[in-house]
Amino acid sequence: MRFAEALSRPGLAAIAEFKRRSPSVGDIRSDARVEEVVPAYAASGAAAISVLVDERFGGSLDDLRAARAATDVPLLAKGFFEEEAQLAELRRAGADAALLILRNLDDATCARLMRTAEELGLDTLVEAHDDDELERAIELRAPIVGLNARDLSTFHVDRTGQLNLVARAARRGDHLVIAESAIATRAQGAAAELAGADAILVGTALMQAPDPAAKLRELLSRPLVKVCGMTNQEDVDAALAAGADLVGFVFVEGSPRRAEAVLDVPDTALSVAVFVGEPEDAGADLVQLYEAEPGTVRGRNATLLREGERVATVVDLPWEREDPAHLERAAAVEDRLVLAGRLGPDNVAEAVARVRPWAVDAASRLEREPGRKDHELVRAFVEAAR
After folding, report:
1. Distance of CA 55 to CAs 19, 51, 60, 61, 367, Å?
2. CATH for 224-385?
3. What does the pLDDT look like over 325-358, one tens digit per residue?
4. d(Cα 366, Cα 316) in Å, to the nearest integer?
5. Which has the closest alpha carbon to 235: 386, 358, 363, 383?
6. Residue among 179, 193, 224, 201 at smallest CA distance from 11
7. What is the pLDDT of residues 155-201, one digit of tens each?
8. SS3 sequence, the chain?
9. Which terminus of the chain has a lower count of CB atoms within 10 Å, N or C?
10. Going by C-beta distance under 8 Å and a sequence separation of 6 or more, which residues neighbour residue 28?
């Protein structure tokens, strides 16, 4: 299978990276062996595997050859490539794709290398890290565009800037979009996914983990878990400590869980502001917008929005009413699905098995009183959902 084809399948794909060190953090896993890590990546859901062949990252062409011998998963060779002969050498060593970094290449050189790679049967991942470089990649008609959160000159990480670039790239042209660097949690991967990324490239977070393959499985696992109805920082912190990926704040008159503001949520998770009828700018990462329904606090249907654009469908129960066909209705949704509606530790596992949602959302059944969470119930819910 070609590298591009492997990244084109439905859902968020992952390019798992093998590297022993990084100029930004130094040694990561200096004794790592390709023969052990790469097959484990392949068995844990990696759509493709990136191999550093540059000695500054503790890599070499021998690592690429060893990876090729260890797996049939498409391989991306990463390094600083400027000449056609380097691409030919990568292909002979087993690469299916090569990284081309626009920071180091002018347009004419990049275009020439892309043509040579195509002749060799190599795909190319053309990497940009700012607006100008993204425009260059689009003008070059790069079939795969990578947006790196880390500036390779300063090593500064700008995740917000990266997500904005991912969203811009996803709206421009017929190309695959890859979010690279600074992804260490499920929520961070989901943020890239919702911005429009087809895949994430993860290296340091995997190689720093005690078990890189287990960390990869965690990043790709679904459903995500949202704990909603937050009114105080203690409950937010407890939910995040329990492993919640998203925390929700309700801004709806008449709700017993009405929040005064979006509280402190680190960038390892996502904040969600919940509105009925018309959304406002609450400073959250996402908005969950319910339809207004006369005579009740909210309608049953909601949409998850990122920057005003629909990214998922929320299937909920009618306000304070039952619906025996709730799970069947949810299972029929073809959109990215967030399942809500009186979920708790006792029923979420069955609901996940029947519906296979992208995320699950709970509020009232995790409380000791309206607006105050029972931390033991929150922990039990997250564990049962994941």
Report:
1. 10, 12, 6, 9, 53
2. 3.20.20.70
3. 999 999 999 999 999 999 999 999 999 999 999 9
4. 16
5. 363
6. 193
7. 788 899 999 999 999 998 889 999 998 899 999 999 999 999 999 99
8. CCHHHHHCCCCCEEEEEECCEECCCEECCCCCCHHHHHHHHHHCCCCEEEEECCHHHCCCHHHHHHHHHHCCCCEEEECCCCCHHHHHHHHHHCCCEEEEEHHHCCHHHHHHHHHHHHHHCCEEEEEECCHHHHHHHHHCCCCEEEEECECCCCCCECHHHHHHHHHHHHCCCCCEEEEECCCCCHHHHHHHHHHCCCEEEECHHHHHCCCHHHHHHHHHCCCEEEECCCCCHHHHHHHHHHCCCEEEEECCCCCCCECCCCCCCCCCCEEEEEEECCCCCCCCCEEEEECCCCCCCCCCEEEEEECCEEEEEEECCCCCCCCCCHHHHHHCCCCCEEECCCCCCCCHHHHHHHHCCCEEEECHHHEEECCEECHHHHHHHHHHHC
9. N
10. 19, 20, 21, 22, 204, 207, 208
Q: What is the amino acid identity at position 164?
A: N
List the one residue out of 280, 269, 275 whose CA is nearest residue 250: 275
pLDDT, mean over the chain = 95
Listed by start position, the domains of the chain span: 3-220, 224-385
Q: Which two tokens stand for residue 5?
A: 């084809």
CA–CA distance, 44 with 67 (Å, rounded to integer): 15
Nearest to 272 by CA among 252, 317, 370, 282: 282
Whether 136 contacts 108, CB under 8 Å: no
pLDDT band at 104 (very low <50, low <70, confident <90, very high): very high
At 92, is the pLDDT very low, low, confident or very high (cuts 50, 70, 90)?
very high
Query: Which token pair is 318?
Result: 């009618």
pTM: 0.94
CA–CA dist 264, 380 (Å, integer): 23
Q: What is the dihedral of CA 33, 35, 38, 42, to 10 degrees?
A: -150
What are the C-alpha distances in Å from 22 to residues 28, 46, 53, 145, 188?
7, 21, 12, 22, 21
Report the C-alpha gap between 332 and 82 in whole angstroms.
50
Query: What architecture is domain 3-220?
Result: Alpha-Beta Barrel (3.20)
